[in-house]
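Notebook entry, structure prediction.
Reason for the run: the old model in the group folder had no record of what sequence produced it. Starting over properly, with the input documented here first.
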Amino acid sequence: MRPVGFYNIFTYYDLGITYLKEILQQDVYKIEPRNTKGHRKHNVVVHKLISQLVPLKKELKEDQQKNNILQNNQIENNNNTTNKLYEQTGIKCQCRVTNNNEKIFLKELLKFDIFSEDKTIKMLEKI
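New structure, fully documented this time:
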């Protein structure tokens, strides 16, 4: 908030009092002729939150797009460097396949809710 806004907020009460005194003189006591000019005047400027958020949303979108582009570039660079390393060393990327004995062992491990030392020793002995 700007200093002008603070000033307007703090002087709003004083302006309201003078406005009410004018109405009292004009409408109630009928001492002065009725003057309706300036009755709707506001001393505080109202800003809608939506109008302030629209530029922020645009900036956030732009930042996210820039970050996404940077991340994609980094991923591509990482992939390129790993591919170059594999090509230079001649090492191929391989996936390990579990055999049937390992599948059975893992299936037995997943049966237990609580895993105690005795059970671990028995399972290790089976291997």
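Summary: The chain has three domains: 1-46, 49-94, 98-127.
The old model has been moved to the deprecated folder.
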